[in-house]
Design goal:
Blueprint: H1 3-7, H2 15-24, H3 32-52, E1 62-66, E2 72-74, H4 75-90, E3 94-99, E4 106-107, E5 116-124, E6 135-143, E7 164-170, E8 174-179, E9 185-190, E10 195-200, E11 211-213, H5 224-234, E12 244-245, H6 251-261, E13 264-267, H7 280-293, E14 297-299, E15 319-322, H8 324-339
Parallel strand pairs: 3-5, 11-12, 11-13
Antiparallel strand pairs: 1-2, 3-4, 5-6, 6-7, 7-8, 8-9, 9-10, 13-15, 14-15
Bound molecules: 1,6-di-O-phosphono-beta-D-fructofuranose and magnesium ion (2 copies).
One magnesium ion (MG) binds next to strand 5.
């Protein structure tokens, strides 16, 4: 490494410096959010390190348990969940936690309680763990209404009430993407410093993209608008070029590529899964929040995704998210179906 050049990088913006700068814009702030975020970041670094040495440390394979969704839990799912639950509770800033891996919401003891609700998917893309393909962590943060008496209503809020959302992708590099409500910023972990550095300031998704991302193996069960949309991507009739298909099967990685390159990510409803597969609170909402803040859109097939009001913590929803113009097209197809 060129240390002289490194020393000259006076603009090195670490994620904590970034959040402290944001905090200073709100003189009334007590710094609670900054502390909460520092614990989430620490959890991500811990999981990143475990993911990197998974094959060596015998962390791949099944843990022998099944989670509430009936899915087999991988060892890394279990470990990541433990890491985030401990990191979040020990921040002293959380009140209620909802994890993909836990059946019920966790209400934090009054002595350790703070003002935030955190919903999270500790490890997204589990099916890609054993082959070393990109996986991630997704989170969304709400403010509790009354911290003295937290109830499930504090969790079952529409996504537009979130105060922040983000994800960390454990890929060829470890990337943390965050929105605290205005704009979206991306940070890359410098392993030699152990710090996330701002590398993707003010991310804006291209207005239209050249990529669609969907599990085409489910095509025989799709509804009309989804089938028509994918057909248009492959065989456009308006003279435009066809779109390329890219599908990793880890939402974090598929959404990250969509955010940076543009295009659309679809996990639609189908005849076998009328509510789709992805979970509203800790997959659909955080990613929809980020997409909208980056200038894109997120649609369920019926409505703007962030306006959904979940009725239970593990509820699922179809989701179409990405570039503004691409989502407009699928919205038009669903609107036309209603008129037919
Ligand atoms: O294999 P499929 O049905 O295409 O599903 C892929 C989707 O499932 C998920 O892996 C579900 O997430 P988990 O691994 O957290 O259960 C998403 O990341 C991804 O978008
Ligand atoms: Mg997931
Ligand atoms: Mg998961």
């Amino acid at each position: 490494m060129d240390h002289a050049a490194d020393a000259n990088r006076t603009d090195l913006m670490t994620i904590m410096r970034f959040v402290l700068n944001e905090q200073s814009k709100h003189p009334e702030s007590r710094g609670d959010f900054t502390i909460l975020l520092s614990h989430i970041v620490l959890g991500c670094k811990f999981v990143c390190s475990a993911v990197n040495k998974a094959g060596l440390a015998k962390l791949i394979g099944l843990a022998g348990e099944t989670n509430v969704q009936g899915e087999e839990q991988k060892k890394l799912d279990v470990l990541s969940n433990d890491v985030f639950v401990k990191a979040l509770i020990s921040s002293g800033r959380t009140c209620i936690l909802v994890s993909e891996e836990d059946e019920e919401a966790t209400f934090v003891e009054p002595s350790q309680r703070g003002r935030y609700v955190v919903v999270f998917d500790p490890l997204d893309g589990s099916s890609n763990i054993d082959c070393g393909v990109s996986i991630g962590t997704i989170f969304g943060i709400y403010m509790v209404k009354h911290s003295n008496e937290p109830t499930l209503d504090d969790v079952l809020q529409p996504g537009e009430n979130m105060v922040a959302a983000g994800y960390c992708m454990y890929g060829s590099s470890c990337t943390f993407v965050l929105s605290t409500g205005v704009g979206v910023n991306g940070f890359t972990l410098d392993p030699s410093l152990g710090e996330f550095i701002l590398t993707h300031p003010d991310i804006k998704i291209p207005k239209k993209g050249k990529i669609y991302s969907v599990n085409e193996g489910n095509a025989k069960n799709w509804d009309g608008p989804t089938a028509k949309y994918v057909e248009k991507c492959k065989f456009p009739k308006d003279g435009s070029s066809s779109k390329s298909l890219r599908y990793i099967g880890s939402m974090v990685a598929d959404v990250h590529r969509t955010l940076l390159y543009g295009g659309i990510f679809l996990y639609p409803a189908d005849k076998k899964s009328p509510n789709g597969k992805l979970r509203v609170l800790y997959e659909v909402f955080p990613m929809s929040f980020l997409m909208e803040r980056a200038g894109g859109q997120a649609f369920t097939g019926k409505q703007r995704a962030l306006e959904l009001v979940p009725k239970n913590v593990h509820e699922r929803s179809p989701i179409f998210l990405g570039s503004y113009d691409d989502v407009e097209e699928i919205k038009a197809l669903y609107a036309a179906e209603v008129k037919e």
